[in-house]
From TrEMBL:
It comes from Dillenia turbinata. Residues 141-188 form the F-box domain. The lineage of its organism: Eukaryota, Viridiplantae, Streptophyta, Embryophyta, Tracheophyta. PANTHER family: OS09G0392200 PROTEIN. This is F-box domain. It comes from the Eukaryota.
Amino acid sequence: MTQLSSLPIVMVQRGGPCEVPQCGTSALIQPPCGKWMVTHWTIANRRILDPLQLVSLRSGSTGLWWRRTTSAVITYDVVIWMKQMAVVLKSCPISTCHPSERQTKLIIKSFHFKSSKRRRKAEGKRHKGRRRRNAEEGSDWRPWLDLPEELLDLIIKSLGFLGLLRFASVCRQWRFYASRFRTEIARMRPPLVLLMSRHSKGMWFLHDLYDGRTCVQRIFDMSHKMVIGCTSGFLSIRDHINRKLHFVNPLTAQKDYTFTYPPLPFSSVILASASNAEIVVVAFHRYQKCLQLYRCNDAHWICFSVGEQYKIADLVLWHERPTILTDDGKILVFHLGSDPYFSVLNHMVPPMRLRNPQLVVTGGELLMAECIDPSDRYSYDFGDLEDGAFDNALRRHPFKFYRLHQNRWDEVDHLGDNAVFRSSCRTKALYRPNQWGGSSNSVYSIKYCLPRRVPDAIFRCCIYSLSGKVLDRCPITAGEREITFGKNTPLWYFPNISGNIDPIRLD
């Protein structure tokens, strides 16, 4: 335990300010009544509200509630509870431009509690009476409501997307102010990493690479359910027991759409909306020859065969039409209407055999990605190669991208201002990642790492160049909670399309 003599002393004086230590430091707080206590700040600077555990000394039962909004604004409320005395220190936000306009108030009140039960009962009555008096006198003082808009701009611009959601939950005024910047912040921040612990039913972890914040989201019971991907800002979840297909917004944890199970096996689905507001669901299984379509107006599934000579490798919406990539690099366009049909684009296929190809739509262009993670030695079978030959094969063929241009696939060696975010079910591209500190012309991939190699994280985000060189590694943690591999693998979730449904053409 830390020696008391080595800790800095913070004096709480009547009518004077209190200099709260920085987060991650220990300190002694000496109230006016002469009692001592030890506190330890372990929360991050960007947290909004967190309780802290205290060490009880000679003063008997002690406690502390410390609240700080962000590192950009000095805002804290300290409540010191002792056996027979309660010292309440309230400090309003201190603006860097006008620090003299804010004054610190100190209120000292005495209470005597003979038992913990009577103490809790008295606390409830006291808070209820205080709220009643504030409502009658109109003295419900909330200092954060008086912050100038210039200061709110500085706070919002320094937050990640998860921090913006916490910012909007403070009060109604802040929620209205955050709604004006939500679209801009979502577009200028990296996508969220969505993980699920196999030991926690219905518990999701959203990790923000921008500031390292992790948010825990509880949804419905995930027993006998599995996430199969993200589509149109929703998570697609299939229920094996009830044979239902759910689409859930991970930010609101609400089931927005529910459909019956497709009759044939499927591994991926796409949710889209027509111009007449009709919801359309397209389901397919990789390396199979059947496409399944569900239209809300028909209320049943229809199966379409792509042909005996084709196998579906991937499917995306390109120019508002379902576009299919076959295992040999051909493109099929599915035309919906009264008489649906497939059309084959007249283009040249790549000369080499493709391994795990995926389609990526960026800026109206169609890319074909073939990504082999250089750190995953067991993803693909390269034959009886020695270690040196395996590494040489990866260096020759780590990541390959082709652009569909004038009816042919042209290999590209530079992605420009784009970054590709790779996952097992869906690969997407993001424009201008340098606006949030990311790397352009690179590939982001979520990897599972052994605890003995990375003790602080079970997952990490690896950033690769197109040549396979590791540019950076970012650990992904959820506090002290261990996130392990289950039946749901990590996903990239783009908050800028949260709740939006991709359009689809029915003609």
